[in-house]
TrEMBL record, chain A:
Cellular component terms per the entry's GO annotation: plasma membrane
Protein name: 4-azaleucine resistance transporter AzlC
Family classification: Belongs to the AzlC family.
Transmembrane parts of this sequence: 12-35, 47-80, 131-157, 163-181, 188-221
Biological process terms in GO annotation: L-valine transmembrane transport
Keyword entries, A-Z: Cell membrane, Membrane, Transmembrane, Transmembrane helix, Transport
Membrane topology, record value: Multi-pass membrane protein
TrEMBL record, chain B:
Organism: Glycomyces artemisiae
PROSITE patterns linked to this entry: RHODANESE_3
Protein name, entry field: Branched-subunit amino acid transport protein AzlD
Span of domain Rhodanese: 50-87
InterPro entries membership: Brnchd-chn_aa_trnsp_AzlD (IPR008407), Rhodanese-like_dom (IPR001763)
Transmembrane segments: 36-56, 84-101
Keywords attached to this entry: Membrane, Transmembrane, Transmembrane helix
Keyword Transmembrane: yes
Taxonomic placement: Bacteria, Bacillati, Actinomycetota, Actinomycetes, Glycomycetales
Name of a matching Pfam family: AzlD
Amino acid sequence: MPFRILKRLDRGLLRDIAALDAGLFIVGVSFGAIATSQGVPWWQSTAMSLFVFAGASQFATMGIMTAGGGLLAGVAAGLILNLRHVPYGMAVGDVYWTSLRAKLIGTHLLVDHSAAFALAAGDDRRRARHAYWTVGVSLFVIWNLGSVLGAFAGQFIADPKALGLDAALPAIMLAIIMPNLRDRRTLAAGVLGTAVALGTSFLLPAGVPVLLALVGLVVMWKGANRNEETAA
Amino acid sequence: MTMMIAILALAAGTYLIRLSGPLLRRRMTLSDHAEQVIRAGATVVLLALAVTAALLVDGGFAGWALPAGVLVGGVLAWRKAPLALVVVAAAATTALLRLAGVA
């Protein structure tokens, strides 16, 4: 009986991951297509997807480079966007911190969605591990297939904006982290942090505002002190 | 050539960034509460990422079609709808609004 419940849980998880993969496949296609339209050879956009495997930074760095913004500016913009992976790694790193091989591969597979799915599993470590690896590996395959396909046949594929895909991606993220947001204090920290991120978005380079959202966590420190006081 | 250097530099730097989270985390001994805060931290960043992506594009307001679609998806997610439905509803809302001429 418990086995059957577990199986059903995992089937729901797989269906969710399939929906995520479908969405990001099209984003991967659009990455390859944009690269080609900017005159970047297919093997370079493919190498980028393989070795960087972080969509937003790939778009940013490639965009700056092809616009003649220079090497330093291009790489710096991408790296700043990717700094958000530090808090992800701190939160879910233990999920893949097992064998050396798992550490090395798991590190490369740390992206927004693999972190979010692992977090959503909460204290169920088996489910967290299952989710992290399934999302990470499937996204890696989908992302790279998509970007190769886009590099060659991008002009035949519909514009992601016309499909409303730019709305689907944040909605997917909201759906994945929803279980964690049901915790009141996490939600309070999230709302405050998001306000900080929005307020600073007009002043700071992309990638920094979402990190500043961590300021929202003050809500939780306060709670800890109060708990200690009542305990004392 | 410069593009290839950029790709390799971004790849190496990103790998080190990804590596630094677990390495930092393993250097600390944390209370249960601190661990909760770290997990909440990742959730907070993901929420901020989703909301800023819904409202802002290239440093300006994204227009109404995009946040409207994300909102529809978010409400469905809150009502525990399956992810496939969230994706389709969010995308369809935004796509139809754009088709109707809403930016």
